[in-house]
Amino acid sequence: MRIKKSHNRYLVIILLLLFLSSLFCGQAQAYYPDIGNSTAKYAIIALSDVGIIKGHKDGTFKPNNPITRAEFAVILAGILNLPDQPEKAKHFRDVHSWARGAVGALVNANIVAGKEATFFGADDYLTREDMAVFFVRALGYQQQAESLNLNLPLKDVRYISNYAVRHVAFAYNIGLINGYTNGHFGPRDLSKREQVAHLAYQVYKKRADYTNAANNLIKNHQPVKIFIDPGHGGSDAGAVSPINKIKEKDIALEISLIAAEILEREYAGVVVRLSRTTDVYPTLSERVAMANNWSADYFVSIHHNAGGGTGFESYRYGNNQQTVDLQRQIHTHIATHLQNSYGLRDRGMKTANFYVLRYTSMPAILLELLFLDHAYDASLLQQKSFRQYLAHLVAEAIAKAHGLEKKQYY
Q1: Domain termination site, one of 185, 220, 255
Q2: Which pick of 29, 178, 270, 333 has the fewest CB atoms within 10 Å?
Q3: DSSP β-bridge partners for residue 302
């Protein structure tokens, strides 16, 4: 008798599970006949229930089809509960009436923008990298995503557009997006309707969780802020080589730009600003003010020497221990490689009362990278490949001194 009751109990449970399963399957079928095998089936149903997602006129959802920017805008505005603002999208000549209110709401919230002044790209398909950018903006973390420089362990990270890579990294690090099972992200792949439905549902239901994850990420990943100052510029050429006529201001700028790019591209947890990115002349006080106002962690001034000599030397102001330690690490890395690879002389670590070293409020170093009036030094500096080599040395030295982590797949 006890065995029979037990069997009956199990039979009831099995029948109940079968009923619930058929109920959900029937619900999916009732909504859209083509989502039964979709991994986002329940997200599609849930968002359809609240009117955020709609299918096609033929009654299907087409989960594996790419989604357009207009369709995505309607979903994104829906999960954010933004009121329609069609007047904010009236300047776009290609936005359909059914999407104009949502597009306008997102434009007003600074989440999306047009591809051109009067062209939104409403019928263009949404790429995966753009999808990540828009979701990060929707969560309200655009500035934080751009200010951090997080590691992104995806094999095709080099192919993510510059405007999107930090947003993709931010979304990945808070657990919002993942790559494919092969370790790639597919930044230019088109976003499928079911993928958007899944992510939209996650943000719709778990926004507080992603907000907490984002806040913890920001708290625990404050980047090292490096300020690079290419010496001279504009009307101040600096030293000019009597041998090959190259100007200090030009090669200092070139090396600085490359070093900055390498640091941000290849290392996590670092952001870089420069005192100039073109052939202009900021005054010494302006250079110092830029670094101080940004609250930089380290100041690096790039110069090239003249006056009868050869090789490399570096300068600091005073004997603050942190400044001395950082100079030692950076100087040693650069000097050792130049000596071993090119036989260039190490002229040593020095101190000086240079304005940019004295008045910056953070540890600072000034690098004198070879002599423009020495035949051998000048012949090296004239070579683009050597200037690129110097930029790599500077970037590596800064990264090593600050314990920066090399990004995966770089």
Answers
A1: 220
A2: 178
A3: 230, 367
Do 154 and 236 belong to one domain? no
**Rounded to an integer, what distance in angstroms lies between the CA atom of residue 230 and that of residue 249?**
7
Residue 266 belongs to some domain of the structure: yes
Q: Do 71 and 160 belong together in one domain? A: yes
125, with CB counted inside 10 A (0-12, 13-18, 19+), is middle
- pTM (two decimals): 0.80
The yes-or-no verdict on residue 223 having pLDDT over 90 is yes
What amino acid is encoded at 132 in this protein? A
- Strand ranges in 160-269 using DSSP code E only, listed in sequence order: 224-230, 267-268
The residue among 337, 335, 328, 329 whose CA lies nearest residue 313 is: 335
Domain span holding position 365: 224-406
Read off the pLDDT band of 31 (50, 70, 90).
confident
Residue that is written with structure tokens 């591809």 in the block: 115
* Band (209; pLDDT cuts 50, 70, 90): very high
Please check whether residue 141 lies inside any domain of the structure.
yes
In Å, how far are 3, 91, 144, 173, 176 from 183, measured between CA atoms?
51, 41, 25, 15, 16
Here the CATH number for the domain that contains residue 260 is 3.40.630.40
Coil/strand/helix, residue 225: strand
Which pLDDT tens digit goes with each residue over 327-380?
999 999 999 999 999 999 999 999 999 999 999 999 999 999 999 999 999 999
Measured CA to CA, the distance from residue 210 to residue 376 in angstroms comes to 57
138 in the same domain as 55: yes
Contact (CB, 8 A) for 79 and 204: yes
Position of tokens 């597009």?
Answer: 103
**289-293 long-range CB contacts below 8 Å, 24 or more apart?**
290/227, 291/227, 291/229, 291/360, 291/361, 291/362, 292/359, 292/360, 292/361, 292/362
| Structural domains counted in the chain | 2
Going by DSSP bridges, is the β-strand pair 224-230/364-371 parallel, antiparallel, or unpaired?
unpaired
Is 119 in the same domain as 257? Answer: no
Task: Report pLDDT for 11.
Answer: 52
Q: Could you tell me if 201 and 283 lie in one domain?
A: no
Helices (H), ranges, 312-383: 321-342, 355-358, 375-381
- Catalytic residues, by residue number, are 368
Last residue of a domain, one of 189, 220, 251: 220
Q: List the alpha helices (DSSP H) in 221-320.
A: 248-266, 284-294
